[in-house]
Amino acid sequence: MSVILETQNLRREFGALVAVDDVSMEIEEGSLHSIIGPNGAGKTTFFNLVSGTLKPTAGRVLYKGEDITQLPMHRTIHKGIGRSFQITNIFPNLTVFENVRLACQALGSDSFRVFRSHLKSTAYLERAEEVLAEVGLSDRALTLARTLPHGDQRKLELGMILAPDPDVLMLDEPTAGMAAEQVPELMELVQSIQEAGDKTVVLVEHNMNVVMSVSDRITVMHQGARLAEGAPAEISADERVQTAYLGALYEDRGGS
Ligand SMILES: Nc1ncnc2c1ncn2[C@@H]1O[C@H](COP(=O)(O)OP(=O)(O)OP(=O)(O)O)[C@@H](O)[C@H]1O
Ligand SMILES: [Mg+2]
């Protein structure tokens, strides 16, 4: 097993607030690694730092051994890190197909450098079709994105992240706002994409049933810091985690 993504004493302050407090973390290649913690723990800020959306106050991010700390998000995408946002991030008035094609095209300058321009557009179309098949939306290709059911919008979003064929998928609450009965389907999709493409998934998720069933490893964040890390069984048995918030979390949000 090798480490694909690593942070070393990663830190981000907002004024007096330490949103991410010297977090050192290693993500194994090919694993599904979840990051959990109560609201405000620093999970999204951690994602922002790794993906280049935000610059850290201190510390480093290493991807495949390379220091990517200072790279902006469009560069980390080219490196192979695909990242979702907590809020659905699709173009509502375009079709499903157009959304995915745009995501493919946005990467054109680097990923398809070898193609001439007329070949390029064919490559985008083919890639878009491939991606739609992968997320199970081929028969929805011509539907306007805004008219999709919420669960399918989340799949579309996944497709847009997958367009450049990233090695690492960073998913920030992909099941947020979904009806409970749609959640297993989306998570099965994430797992099948991960297994088929040998991808690494970093998942932020509040649904503990999901986290405990899909994760290889779990990191618990609390007030910006890394509180605990281990396999699901270790985390659910960890008394510190229990008292810090797991019990409360199950009561508050586990059923939603
Ligand atoms: N741009 C910002 N400016 C100032 N404070 C911020 C900013 N972004 C985040 N914070 C603060 O940093 C802390 C961590 O926020 P963050 O969004 O990373 O938490 P989270 O773990 O993702 O929470 P949630 O589960 O609610 O999504 C919070 O106190 C938040 O208010
Ligand atoms: Mg968040």
Describe the protein's topology:
Layout: E1 3-14, E2 17-28, E3 32-36, H1 43-51, E4 58-63, E5 66-67, H2 73-79, E6 81-83, H3 96-105, H4 108-111, H5 117-134, H6 150-162, E7 168-172, H7 183-197, E8 200-204, H8 208-214, E9 217-222, E10 225-230, H9 232-237, H10 239-254
Parallel strand pairs: 3-8, 3-9, 6-7, 7-8
Antiparallel strand pairs: 1-2, 1-4, 4-5, 9-10
Helix pairs in contact: 3-5, 3-6, 6-7
Uncertain spans, ≥5 residues at pLDDT below 50? Answer: 110-115
Q: Tell me the radius of gyration.
A: 18 Å
Number of E-type strands: 10
Assign the CATH topology of the largest domain.
Rossmann fold
In spatial order, strands of the major sheet run 6-7-8-3-9-10
- Backbone structural class: alpha/beta
CATH architecture annotation name of the largest domain: 3-Layer(aba) Sandwich
Bound molecules: adenosine-5'-triphosphate, magnesium ion
- Tell me the fraction of residues in β-strands, as a range: 15-25%
| Percentage of residues in helical conformation | 40-55%
| Series of secondary-structure elements, N-terminal to C-terminal | EEEHEEHEHHHHEHEHEEHH
Q: Biggest β-sheet, characterized?
A: 6 strands, mixed
Q: Can you say what the CATH homologous superfamily of the largest domain is?
A: P-loop containing nucleotide triphosphate hydrolases
Overall shape: globular
Number of helices: 10
Oligomer: single chain
Description:
The chain is of the alpha/beta class. It contains ten helices and ten strands. A hairpin with a 2-residue loop joins β1 and β2 (17-28). α3 packs across α5. The chain binds adenosine-5'-triphosphate (ATP) and magnesium ion (MG). Adenosine-5'-triphosphate binds next to β2 and α1.
